[in-house]
Amino acid sequence: MSGADRRPPVPWSRALGADVTDTTSRALEATExxxxxxxxxxxxxxxxxxxxxxxxxxxxxxxxxxxxxxxGLVEGITEYLPVSSTGHLLVTxxxxxxxxxxxxxxxxxxxxxxxxxxxxxxxxLYWNRVWSLVLGLxxxxxxxxxxxxxxxxxxxPAALVGFLLEDTIKDRLxxxxxxxxxxxxxxxxxxxxxxxxxxxxxxxxxxxDALVIGLAQMVAMWPxxxxxxxxxxxxxxxxxxxxxxxxxxxxLGLLTLSAATVYDLGQxxxxxxxxxxxxxxxxxxxxxxxxxxxxxxxxVSYLRTRPxxxxxxxxxxxxxxxxxxxxxxxxxSGR
Length: 335
Prior knowledge:
The chain has helices spanning 12-56, 65-79, 85-95, 101-125, 127-137, 142-173, 176-192, 207-219, 227-237, 242-276, 279-303, 309-327. The chain is mainly α.
């Protein structure tokens, strides 16, 4: 062997350290895998128990186990995707025969309740970031405090308009045709205008950036627009990277959803329990939480390498399908 081919022996201490590191890493991965397995099994057991309890409960409310599962899936899958959960739930309620009178009111209060699952999903997936915000609130994390202030700035415009115009918006816009218009306009916009992601991260955001995103979120008060869509696009427009835009949209959505849920349940929470008991809403919450978690993880992975174009085509497709349902009389067009 020539001198050029000789390699100095690896010190035993370095080799031992590498072995220990590799062993520790494998042990941590195995522990994490077991933790996920236990969580999955535990979740399935809880869901099964809720199904059994809901089946045993009085079905006089007109909202059964299948309805709860369907609404939970629709809420969870669409809440954080740029396709509008409100629009999907509105159409789904009519397909399930919940579009009129007491059935519509019951479904509305149920949908409010199951948003808790979507909130819990983002809390779990972004717990480290959320904890940083909590520490920032008490003055123990400067970056967390700066980001929290920007989230509050972005939250404020829609919160103010929603508080002042809630009844007007529900009376005039919460119907299938306004949803169809919003789906179509949003879909066409995504196909025509494809904002290029910037390079700035969350901590590079300015107050102006946050305000622009907050003003954009007001547009999403028109059902069918999608809060996720307008906030992600606005964040890209001010120069955030795709990853930062998506994460900020999720964090802003966490606050927006939480505030809306607390407000609405404070007014109608008793009605949910009176009509459905505890098991059926809990089943919907669990289904929404699991499906929202999966949807969020998929969206983050998908947008790492792909644009939002697919959602433009989807929105146009679901708008066209809804028009067919309306024209054929399959669903009612009224509020």
